[in-house]
Amino acid sequence: MFNIFKGEGCSKDVSQITPEEAFKKLSEDKEGKNTIVIDVRDPHEYSGNLGHLENSKLIPIKLLPLKIKELEPHKEKEIIAVCRSGVRSYSACAMLKRHGFNNVYNLKGGMLMWKKMGLKTHM
Q1: Does the pLDDT at position 116 exceed 70?
Q2: What gap in Å lies between CA 39 and CA 16, rounded to an integer?
């Protein structure tokens, strides 16, 4: 079978979080002391019609390998990775795990599912 993730981890290695679970977690941690959101879409998607999550940090997937050092101070926090549908963020989670980030979650269904659930976004 073709592996689109190029060995970046098996599905059992990446934890999924539903939009409802993520919303609850982020609502309880408004100041971002325990949880940060990394949006791995391109800038035009981040500001596009699906919007983005409040206080999310935009790091396009192609730049993530260059930006991992900047995330080191957040290594002990929970990190929720977000993209349009959950594919690029899955890959981002696998990459972060390989660099020692253990508390990473892929937003299941991405911004498409977040928006479908009627959860708040920012433009």
Answers
A1: yes
A2: 15
Q: Return the axis-axis angle of helices 64-71 and 87-98, rounded to nearest 10°.
A: 50
pLDDT in tens, 37-95: 999 999 999 999 999 999 999 999 999 999 999 999 999 999 999 999 999 999 999 99
Token readout for 36 is 């940060």
Q: Where are the domains of the chain?
A: 12-116
pLDDT at 1: 36
Active site residue ranges: 83
In the CATH hierarchy, which fold is given to the domain comprising 12-116?
A: Oxidized Rhodanese; domain 1 (3.40.250)
| Environment class of 65 (CB within 10 Å of its CB; exposed 0-12, middle 13-18, buried 19+) | exposed
Q: Is 99 exposed, middle or buried (0-12, 13-18, 19+ CB in 10 A)?
A: middle
Which of helix, strand or coil describes residue 2?
A: coil
**Comparing C-alpha atoms, which of 25, 31, 33, 30 is closest to residue 82?**
25
Q: Collect all residues with Cβ–Cβ distance below 8 Å to 65 and sequence separation of at least 6.
A: 95
